[in-house]
Amino acid sequence: MKNVIYIADIDQDIDDLITIRYMAERSVFLKGVVLDPMPTSDVGKARVKLIESWGVKVFDSIPEDAEPKNPMGVAEPTEIVYCGGALTKVAEYVKDHKLQQLVMNGGFVGEPIVPSNKALPKFRGKSAVRTFNFNCDVAAADAVLKSDNIEQIILVGKNVCHDDRNTFEVIWKDEKYLTEGLPVRPGKKLHDLLAVYEGLVFYGLSGYKDNHVLVYKEVYPFNNGLKGNMTEWGSSLEPTGYKKVLAAVGWV
Description:
two-stranded antiparallel sheet
């Protein structure tokens, strides 16, 4: 049995809240959600209660052992983490624990891997850009991308997430119900939802016969020097000092 954790920042991003609801309804393997940071605003606290009303457990760090238990009655460790925010909690966890898979909305694949004629207009001619989730905690991103305690990392980055297809008006039109009661503007890009969907398809955890909407390539992340939230990230086909990852490079 796979044990899945989702890391979210629900104070900052309505996309995370939508994604949690999607996971709660689509995957029986969701162990719970790690909130980073734990909400302090009235809106954030109300969202915590909403998440719990969906039957989702809320944690402030990745649990070392938790339900569900295996057939022998032994609590099983977390195996897969989906991250829709900073990598702070993941970096803390993998200091002393192994993680089979990390699926994350983050990173960027640009030129020359994605040629200009295949890139989104806003990214043409670019090999590296700032990426929000990595830059929430660049030291944590740096540590995670070097960690030998993570077996596989899958990145769904800006180069695909910012596509106009990634909205409730196009590929997510059948999931429009997820916005019920939530303030979602028309045309909003669903970055975290796309990453989680792809991750569930990779590991057969959705309970549905879904197909990938993205194509992938093995790459090595790089940055142009750690500069806090101004750090620019890209991808290379040659080793960079970071571990090899599987990154989305385009749409099917």
